[in-house]
Amino acid sequence: MTIKLNEFWSQRLVQMPETGMGYQKVDLIFKDSRILKGVIVMNAEDCETEEAFKVDDIADIKIHGQ
Amino acid sequence: MLKLDTWLEYWLPTQPEYRMGYQKCIATLNTGRTERGVIINSQVFLKDGEYPWQMLMDWNYIQTHVQTETLKSNLIVKNVQLIPREPETLKGVRYIAFANEKFHVLANRKEAQAKQALTMGGTSYYSLIKESQVLALNASNAAAEDAPITLTEFAEIFKRFSAYANDKRVTPGKGLQPGTFATTKEDADANIKTGTDAVQRYALPNSKPASNVFTITPPKDTEVKRGTAQPANNQPGGGVEIIFVNGSPDGTVTGPVTIPDK
Hints:
By secondary structure, chain A is mainly β. In chain A, 12% of the residues lie in helices and 42% in strands. In chain A, a hairpin with a 3-residue loop joins strand 3 and strand 4. The longest helix of chain A is centred in the N-terminal third of the chain and has 8 residues. The N and C termini of chain A lie far apart (25 Å). By secondary structure, chain B is α+β, with helices and mostly antiparallel strands. In chain B, the strands form two sheets. In chain B, strands 6-10-11-8-7-9-12 form a seven-stranded antiparallel beta sheet. In chain B, strands 1-4-3-2-5 form a five-stranded mixed β-barrel. In chain B, strand 3 and strand 4 form a beta hairpin. The longest helix of chain B has 19 residues. The radius of gyration of chain B is 25 Å and the shape is elongated. Chains A and B meet through loops of A and strand 7 and strand 8 of B.
């Protein structure tokens, strides 16, 4: 499924380096301490994930492996 | 001119040159004697005093007569100790960082195993050397992120393929954000006709073809990393991969132009 990030997280990702042309592989850290690792985000906005989540529950986003 | 033991002809190409086309060494001959000299093209040993310019012959003579000349002697080079070039003579040679260092480490290990197999009389020497060469090739075929920073040339043109017409890595002023990927115009023109081609060649995870093409013309000496797209996302990769380390200034990006999806 594709989950669209809000403008706040989108702008945060734009300031971070890409993993490849047009995408970033990221870790999503949620407010309840849950972490979703290795999520692909296209164009700093479209999360491709098999696990559903709410964008408002995101506490932080980091580039995977950094 | 002396011929080399067969294993040296396989091993020497994996070792650094002293200068373009030859390696300097101390050679151990089948008699046990050692001689200082050079090895040309991993094929033939010339001892000190026998270099072409000293013998008033040119390199072509060596190339065309290596078979006949080496047969004139019963001497053969059984082992070599390569002489590395003195560091102070390398001024002006740009330092090349070892990208994909692990492949260099693995290649060296395989080579050590091959030499051990040879001394123990095993039959696995040639297969181990082949594996070492493949690993060495992988080391040289690194992704851009592992490459050293280099600079763009005057009027060098790059392309970026995106599934999005509103690509967010392109700034409002038509520049590029730091850490943005692209490819060279040469790689794009030669290999990409459709958005699907781009997904495959640059190993993208896109469910949609990358059919929006941006053109980037950065100023000379823009910092970039250059490499090869590694296989990923069930795509083969293999395309030239460029990372704009600090982005590109406003006014250097045009597009997008749309290409067919398939």
